[in-house]
Automatic annotation (TrEMBL):
The keyword Protein transport does not apply. Its cofactor is Fe(2+). It holds the Pfam family RPE65. Keywords: Iron, Metal-binding. Fe cation binds at H172, H237, H308, H514. This is Beta-carotene oxygenase 1. One of its GO terms (molecular function) is carotenoid dioxygenase activity. Binds 1 Fe(2+) ion per subunit.
Length: 547
């Protein structure tokens, strides 16, 4: 089965109207905006890893029961430089590139030296972040790219380092109740220290300080956590968040800074500077948002690799947090394009399945508790926190569900008690074939699947005025491995997990990573959604078979 992982996808610049079957709820008006890699070769050169691909943004605009689709490559500096040179000239996660092969030995040496502190890529292919009224494409370097969600045009390049000292940052920020962005990055060997920095970008800027300024200019450091090691900070892809706490896992999947500093000259990739240390522990840092300080207790657990935090909440003096955990870092290995070729099913077997695990940590010092005692008295979980000497606590998680990735929740429950996880079901292969609704309370699940269909991350949109946590719909872009079946946007009823509608579009749709839904109601009066007239010009897509 070939879905062409390494094949470049065509952009769909003009909106096309999808062929809708079923009935889209009338209240569902807005735009699903998503990001992911779409171009894997430039000229004769090719990227090694799927996470290297050039960012391709796509959007599904839902209006009065119709769906309009468009896609556009992010015109990052990386994209422009590559296209101009007709080859890959900017390094990505799994591909090291050499811009000037013809340079003489002296200028070559100079160019090597200038890469000691590398200028990373602005190929923001992972997610979309809402920042005040603006939207940004994001990756894990120090760069983000402002975009126009309506036209998918690429706007300013923003360097986080102008506002906060971080060399890398996550593409999974959190949003608090006021819409402020909280994100985390690593400041590497700055003034002799390496630390993890949690920073806040305000949703709004006071009128008197505004003067057309972006909220990013008002970014503040919320708190920082010193890295256990100066030269090998942990890699992380997301973090946990509740009203009062921030959860950071300092996992034994680490960046080797010395290796990074010499990677360019040695001709190896950034990916090769990341290593899983199975002999190490995973340290659990809990920051109290009121004091902005990490709790002094040394919480730890077994070695693991976590990409996605699912949710976290406080219950009876404990903090519960749920993550998708692996026993090793094989996920990154599998996404090498060489493993994702025609017979990828043979070559791409994970050596550990992604498991939904629940951790529980006690929030109050248990100085008098006996060594060996379990500090978790909750009846809702079997997760344990065992008291050890020297203020250490060993955390043993509860296994909730085996085989899921790309988790999403009803974000109104972020940081709060919640019951449902929506995710893609992933067993031993990294490619999802089902969409899953997992009920943490009853430990039961509902699934959607269809032959030849590969679903993207399922996104939950609540019904306006919803009371139940699962009162809403699920949106997932589905690509099919059957050439006779065009890709489609699937709309499921989140309660029953039954199909409400699907919108088929005969375009070259890519498998994406993450994104968000912008309800029409979020657009303020100044930034109107495009007029109906604009959509009327969209060409029809009759869902004809792809050739
Ligand atoms: C370029 C670059 C990086 C990029 C990492 C990327 C692009 C990671 C993507 C991860 C995904 C998509 C995970 C999904 O679960 C690092 C290592 C941060 C630092 C060095 C330079
Ligand atoms: Fe992610």
């Amino acid at each position: 089965m070939d879905v062409g992982f390494g094949r470049n996808k065509k952009e769909q610049l003009e909106p096309v109207r999808a062929r809708v079957t079923g009935k889209i709820p009338t209240w569902l008006q807005g735009m699903l905006l998503r990001n992911g890699p779409g171009m894997h070769t430039v000229g004769e050169t090719r990227y090694n890893h799927w996470f290297d691909g050039l960012a391709l943004l796509h959007s599904f605009t839902i209006r009065d029961g119709e769906v309009y689709y468009r896609s556009k490559y992010l015109r990052s500096d990386t994209y422009n430089a590559n296209v101009e040179a007709n080859r890959i000239v900017v390094s990505e996660f799994g591909t090291m590139a050499y811009p000037d092969p013809c340079k003489n030995i002296f200028s070559k040496a100079f160019s090597y030296l200038s890469h000691t502190i590398p200028d990373f890529t602005d190929n923001c292919l992972i997610n979309i972040m809402k920042c005040g009224e603006d939207f940004y494409a994001t990756t894990e370097t120090n760069y983000i790219r402002k975009i126009n969600p309506q036209t998918l045009e690429t706007l300013e390049k923003v360097d986080y380092r102008k506002y906060v000292a971080v060399n890398v940052a996550t593409s999974h920020p959190h949003y608090d109740a006021a819409g402020n962005v909280l994100n985390m990055g690593t400041s590497i060997v700055d003034k002799g220290k390496t630390k993890y920095v949690i920073f806040k970008i305000p949703a709004t800027v006071p009128e008197d300080r505004k003067k057309g300024k972006s909220p990013l200019k008002h970014t503040e450091v919320f708190c920082s956590i010193p890295s256990r090691s100066l030269l090998s900070p942990s890699y992380y892809h997301s973090f946990g968040f509740t009203e009062n706490y921030i959860i950071f896992l300092e996992q034994p999947f680490k960046l080797d800074i010395l290796k990074m500093a010499t990677a360019y000259i040695r001709g190896v990739t950034w990916a090769s500077c990341l290593a899983f240390h199975r002999e190490d522990k995973t340290y659990i840092h809990i920051v109290d948002q009121r004091t902005r300080k990490p709790m002094p207790t040394k919480f730890y657990t077994d070695p693991m690799v976590v990409f996605h935090h699912v949710n976290a909440y406080e219950e009876d003096g404990c903090l519960l947090f749920d993550v998708v955990a692996y026993e090793d870092s094989s996920l990154y290995q599998l996404f090498y394009l060489a493993n994702l070729n025609q017979d990828f099913e043979e070559h791409s077997r994970l050596t550990s399945v992604p498991v939904l695990r629940r951790f529980a940590v006690p929030l109050h010092a248990a100085q008098d508790a006996e060594v060996g005692s379990n500090l978790i008295k909750l009846t809702s979980t079997t997760a344990r926190a065992l008291k050890e000497k020297d203020n250490q606590v060993y955390c043993q998680p509860e296994l909730l569900y085996e085989g899921l990735e790309l988790p999403r929740i009803n974000y109104a429950h972020n940081g709060k008690r919640y019951r449902y996880v929506f995710a893609a079901e992933v067993q031993w292969s990294p490619i999802p074939t089902k969409i899953l609704k997992y009920d943490i309370l009853t430990k039961s699940s509902l699934k959607w699947e269809e032959e030849h269909c590969w679903p993207a991350e399922p996104l939950f949109v609540p019904t306006p005025g919803a009371e139940d946590e699962d009162d809403g719909i699920i949106l997932s872009a589905i690509v099919s491995t059957d050439p006779q079946k065009p890709p489609f946007l699937l709309i499921l009823d989140a309660k029953s997990f039954t199909e409400l509608a699907r919108a088929s579009i005969d375009v070259d749709m890519h498998l994406d990573l993450h994104g968000l839904f912008i309800p029409d109601a979020d657009w303020d009066a100044r930034k109107q959604t495009p007029s109906q007239e604009a959509w009327d010009r969209a060409s029809d897509c009759h869902g004809a078979p792809q050739t």
